[in-house]
Design brief:
- Chain A: Residues 728-769, 791-857, 904-964 are annotated as: Disordered.
- Chain A: InterPro entries: Adaptor_Complx_Large_Subunit, AP4_complex_esu, ARM-like, ARM-type_fold, Clathrin/coatomer_adapt-like_N.
- Chain A: Subunit of novel type of clathrin- or non-clathrin-associated protein coat involved in targeting proteins from the trans-Golgi network (TGN) to the endosomal-lysosomal system.
- The structure holds 2 protein chains of 2 kinds.
- By secondary structure, chain A is mostly helical.
- Chain A is built from 47 helices and no strands.
- The radius of gyration of chain A is 35 Å and the shape is extended.
- In chain A, 37% of the residues are buried.
- Chain B has one domain: 2-Layer Sandwich (Beta-Lactamase).
- Chain B has a 5-stranded antiparallel beta sheet with strand order 2-1-5-4-3, sandwiched between helices. Chain B has a two-stranded antiparallel sheet with strand order 6-7.
- In chain B, strand 6 and strand 7 form a beta hairpin.
- The radius of gyration of chain B is 15 Å and the shape is globular.
- Classes of the chains: A mainly alpha, B alpha+beta.
Chain lengths: 964, 143
């Protein structure tokens, strides 16, 4: 039957005009289609390669035949074999006069070649010619190729023609031209920086296809620089409005929805523009509300648009009405039987939860169902949600669950991700030291070296410094429990290197500190480690140093030290080690053991890891010695720069290593400058190598500058062809992602919504109980699930964050104390009331209800908002009536009058809203929005940069010392 | 960027069409296709139509013997991509009339032409079936 059908089709296809196919081709396709295994398929393809290699080089192949050969080449590559022998023929085919043959040639070339391929240069000429063609289909074919094949260097060759085509009478050409420009922008923003206005212009194109395509580049542009496009809010809103009112051609309808893909793109753009911008957001409320209302819940596409609405609503300045609609949709998604909708629901919940944390509670059982679902995708999404709603009350359950899941999977990519999330959550919210240590142990044991080594270092520091409270007792308990657990874990085979380093360090530092274990226990274990992991030098080094510490502490305490035999043999081995590092450590250990208690105590003071070591950069301790020498008649030291004769040499060398040391220089030598005295402070000179050089930070910053608005300097862009363009270099480091200030919006929004929501401790507990009860009627819920739900969602106690443990600042703050006060949090609330604006805006700080305090201040705010809504509705109505009067739909947003009309009102509204905002509560300042402690993260960042960038000037310095 | 690649694969895991919007070498494509197809084919009807793979999210849909797989960035609307696949199938249906795996195999270039109209630079640019198909019809007439 199947065969018969195939046969019928073949007959039908034989008659299809220009798409002629030979028997040979049909046979090939059929045999590929009938191949039952990969091996069989490979055999067919290898045969085909042989045949084609012979045939394709024959002279005078008819066009149609050649086209078929090229498609056969496409097949070869698609099935995973190399067809590079035929690339040149595909390139040749792009010269053909026949449109179909030409386009097939272009298609093959775009599939075969990347933009760096050598053959591209042969195609550029053809493309240039085709862009000028009278046949618009030829132009379109060339524009397709432009998007795929033109690289940064060849952009100037086609740019003028592409820009010209933006005004082509055919909408298909305009659409493709705008996308070509988009592509240039992606590849080299500076190449089109003077042409950005074209994107704005095409937004007003009267063909909806061109307008829809223009949204793609605009989305990119707005992602990188929101503020320059705020004026377009009105236009986008107006377009979306017209789309929802079905003013676009019916051809764009999909499943009875008017142009849903354009709606989605517009909602994405609005989400960017409205983020953290109350004034812009207010212009959007009406139209987003309309989209909500008009969407069809029964179709997939309707739900896709609804989901995008939720994303938009949770990104822009919050509006209670819209948030309610969003919450409704989310519960509809979560209650659905479709896994796809559940997935979208969980994702949407994760977005909305930042603004209105209380909505999670009504969905707790649905969330737990998703968590326990066998479907991995759904499970992961749910973990993502849990990660977002973690607080100190539920961190244990969540992290334990995450770890269990982490152990169960074997996808390294995701394992790493979930492990670093566990670590992050544990560091932020750990309720107790014991739990923290145990959680970290599990993470380390199972993910091994997948986690960043910095995490291991953080853990060491945490154990050394404690959790920040000045309670030595707690600190030593933490250490003892760490030591105890490590001794136990060491019994297990195959521990990852990073974890072993932590273990060795902790055992060395604190193994004998509390007197529970004697030195021989610990040293025995350490020797075992060094023996069992003898191929890992780092671990061995840690182990030897730990041994040294243990013995030193023993000697300092006045106890007799007798080395275990295994330890002695280890020492002997290491004294002859090939690694100089290990050798040195071994010799040091040997040296320490021979010293008396007093000296040892001085070299190896116990528990000194937290002492700050001050580096005397001036080497002032040598002053006395120098003085003495000078008195005895020695020559005083003259800094190199001040020495006569050496001066010029020094300058030369200085210049040398400012220039990049690699590569030839092509530009003319600059005029010799008068010798300038390098003003290097005398004190710094001897220690140049030790002092961290701040220089390396700058080059990074220059990389990043192109990310921020490109200066639209016409003269600059005009000469772009002549200059070396370095911006492309930056692109190779990955597309810089610019995250808009969503967090500001969240922080501001969060407060309003919290105020509106008004939940205080006991009442929430009640409400959750109620939901339990009502649910019980419908479904039998297992006791276990309920317990899980209660532990995840129950108790809306305040989540508080501990500053990341990696920082020393924590000593003073007494977070643990705070935690114990959670039940009667009235004190904290009071203190917050006095300074609400000062609480750091915090993404994860979801459930922070400022409780009773906000009630009175809230009401006028709400009233104002209602007022605003009313006026806005009126304005919307106005514009609607004016819209219906005008016959040309798409010209509406192009015409200025409507825009201005709208704008005036918007300004008026915004004025009011600003006032209301001001009266309600002071707006937190922008910028100070990211993370729990922006300063800390900044410090971290700069530290990383310093570590990551190797100061290149060090080597020249080395030479300087050798030569000078 | 949005869409990173579009694949059509039959239920034996054989590739029927592949279009990438970022450059991968032949080996990388081969490996990627193998991994993804294995992942997606192992899933049942009730499970989500989305799978995470490395940095991609794969949205897939099955039509008879053929799987349509679209690899997208993390911030893409999955449901919309799912419907985009359906739009593609509807468009091919309109052109071929009750499209099947063999139609795509015999007219690989036409299937590519349709995709070229619908997606550029990894973004959906055209969703009107008439606009997508008109160049192909014109080419048929011309030759």
């Amino acid at each position: 039957m199947e065969q018969l059908r195939t046969f019928g089709r073949e007959l039908a296809m034989g008659s299809q005009g220009g798409f002629y196919q030979s028997k040979e081709f049909l046979d090939l396709v059929k045999s590929i289609g009938e191949a039952r295994s990969k091996a069989e398929e490979d055999r067919i393809v290898v045969n085909e390669i042989d045949t084609l290699k012979r045939r394709i080089a024959e002279p005078d192949i008819p066009k149609r035949k050649m086209k078929e050969y090229i498609i056969r080449l496409v097949y070869i590559e698609m099935l995973g074999h190399d067809a590079s022998f035929g690339y040149i023929h595909a390139v040749k085919m792009t010269h053909d006069d026949s449109l179909l043959v030409k386009r097939t040639g272009y298609l093959a070339v775009t599939l075969f070649l990347n933009e760096e391929h050598d053959l591209i240069i042969l195609i550029v000429n053809t493309i240039q010619k085709d862009l000028k063609s009278d046949n618009y289909l030829v132009v379109c074919a060339a524009l397709n190729a432009v998007c795929k094949l033109i690289n940064e260097e060849t952009i100037p060759a086609v740019l003028p023609q592409v820009v010209e085509l933006l005004a082509h009478p055919k909408e298909a050409v305009r659409k493709k031209a705008i996308m070509a420009l988009h592509c240039f922008y992606q590849k080299s923003p500076s190449s089109v920086s003077h042409l950005i206005s074209n994107f704005r212009k095409r937004l007003c194109d009267n063909d909806p296809g061109v307008m829809g395509a223009t949204l793609c580049p605009l989305f990119d542009l707005i992602t990188r620089d929101v503020n320059s496009y705020k004026d377009l809010v009105i236009s986008f809103v107006s377009i979306l409005k017209q789309v929802t009112e079905r003013r676009l051609s019916k051809a764009y309808d999909y499943h009875q929805m008017p142009a849903p893909f354009i709606q989605i793109k517009l909602l994405k753009i609005l989400a960017l523009l409205g983020s953290g911008d109350k004034q812009a957001s207010e212009n959007m409320y009406t139209v987003v509300g309309d989209v909500f209302r008009k969407c069809d819940f029964s179709s997939n596409i309707g739900n896709a648009v609804l989901y995008e609405c939720i994303c938009c609503v949770s990104s822009i300045y919050p509006n209670p009405k819209l948030l309610d609609s969003a919450a409704d949709i989310i519960s509809r998604f979560l209650k659905s039987d479709s896994h796809n909708l559940k997935y979208m629901g969980i994702d949407a919940l994760g977005r909305l939860i930042k603004i209105s944390p209380e909505i999670a509670e009504q969905h707790q059982l649905a969330v737990i169902d998703c968590l326990e679902d066998p479907d991995d995708t759904l499970k992961r999404k749910t973990f993502e949600l849990l990660y977002k709603m973690t607080k100190s009350t539920n961190v244990e359950v969540i992290v334990d669950r995450m770890i269990d899941y982490m152990i169960s999977i074997n996808d390294n990519h995701y394992k790493t991700e979930i492990a670093s999330r566990c670590v992050e959550l544990a560091e932020q919210f750990a309720p107790s030291n014991q739990w923290f240590i145990q959680a970290m142990n599990k993470v380390f044991e199972h993910t091994g070296d997948l986690v960043n080594i910095k995490v291991a270092h953080n853990l060491m520091r945490l154990i050394a410094e404690g959790f920040g409270e000045d309670d030595d007792n707690a600190d030593s308990k933490l250490r003892s429990s760490a030591v105890e657990s490590y001794l136990r874990i060491l019994g297990e085979p195959k521990l990852p290197s990073g974890f072993l380093q932590v273990i060795c360090w902790v055992l060395g530092e604190y193994g004998t500190a509390d007197g529970m274990f004697c030195a021989s226990d610990i040293t025995g274990k350490l020797c075992d480690v060094a023996e069992a992991y003898s191929s890992d030098d780092t671990v061995k080094a840690y182990a030897v140093t730990a041994l040294m510490k243990i013995y030193a502490f023993e000697i300092a305490a006045g106890r007799e030290v007798d080395m275990l035999t295994e330890c002695q043999s280890l020492m002997e081995e290491l004294l002859a080690s090939h690694s100089t590092d290990l050798q040195q450590r071994a010799y040091e250990l040997q040296g320490v053991i021979g010293l008396d208690a007093h000296a040892v105590e001085f070299i190896m003071p116990s528990d000194a890891s937290c002492e700050d070591i001050e580096v005397d950069k001036d080497l002032s301790f040598l002053d006395g010695y120098i003085q003495e020498a000078i008195e005895k008649g020695a020559q005083p030291y003259i800094p190199e720069s001040e020495r006569p004769g050496v001066l010029n040499m020094g300058n030369f060398r200085n210049q040398d290593h400012h220039e990049s040391s690699h590569g030839l220089r092509f530009e003319a030598y600059e005029l010799p400058k008068p010798a300038v005295q390098p003003r290097i402070p005398r004190a710094l000179l001897p220690s140049t190598e030790i002092v961290p050089v701040p220089e390396p930070v700058y080059p990074r910053e220059t990389y990043q500058t192109p990310v921020t608005p490109i200066p639209s300097n016409p003269s600059d862009a005009g000469s772009a062809e002549l200059k070396l363009r370095l911006d492309g270099v930056q692109k190779k480091w990955g597309r810089p992602t610019y995250t808009p200030e969503t967090s500001t919006s969240n922080s501001t929004s969060q407060k309003t919504v919290n105020g509106a929501a008004q939940v205080d401790g006991p009442s929430t507990v009640n409400s959750t109980r109620e939901t339990y009860a009502s649910r019980k009627l419908q479904v039998e819920i297992s006791h276990e699930k309920q317990k899980l739900a209660a532990s995840l969602f129950g108790g809306s106690s305040k989540p508080e964050k501990r500053p990341a443990t990696g920082h020393k600042v924590s000593k003073a703050s007494s977070h643990m104390l705070e935690k114990s006060h959670v039940p009667n949090s009235s004190m904290e609330v009071a203190s917050e009331k006095t300074a609400p604006a000062q609480t750091p805006p915090d993404l994860l700080d979801l459930g922070e209800p400022t409780s009773t305090s906000t009630a009175p201040s809230l009401d006028p705010f709400k009233q104002l908002e209602v007022l605003l809504d009313a006026t806005q509705d009126a304005s919307a109505a106005n514009s609607a009536t004016s819209a219906s009067r005008s016959p040309d739909v798409m010209a509406l947003y192009a015409d200025t009058p409507v825009g201005i009309h709208n704008k005036d009102e918007a300004d008026l509204l915004s004025g009011m809203s600003n006032m209301s905002g001001a009266t309600a509560r002071p707006q937190p300042t922008k910028g100070s929005s990211k993370g729990p402690n922006p300063k800390d993260s900044l410090e971290k960042d700069s530290l990383v940069r310093q570590m990551g960038v190797k100061p290149s000037s060090q080597n020249p310095n080395l030479f300087k010392d050798l030569l000078g | 960027m949005g869409i990173r690649f579009i694949l059509m694969v039959n239920k034996q895991g054989q590739t029927r069409l592949a279009q990438y919007y970022e450059w991968l070498t032949l080996e990388e494509r081969r490996a990627l296709e193998g991994e993804i197809v294995r992942k997606c084919l192992a899933r049942n009807e009730q499970q989500c139509s989305f799978v995470e793979h490395r940095n991609y999210k794969i949205v897939y849909r099955r039509y008879a013997s053929l799987f349509f797989l679209v690899g997208v960035d993390n911030d893409e609307n999955e449901l919309a991509i799912l419907e985009f696949i359906h739009l593609l199938v509807e468009t091919m249906d309109r052109h071929f009339g009750n499209v099947c795996e063999l139609d795509i195999m015999f007219h690989l270039e036409k299937a590519h032409f349709m995709l070229e109209e619908m997606v550029m630079n990894g973004s959906i640019v055209e969703t009107s079936k008439a606009n997508i198909l008109s160049p192909i019809q014109l080419m048929e007439k011309a030759s």
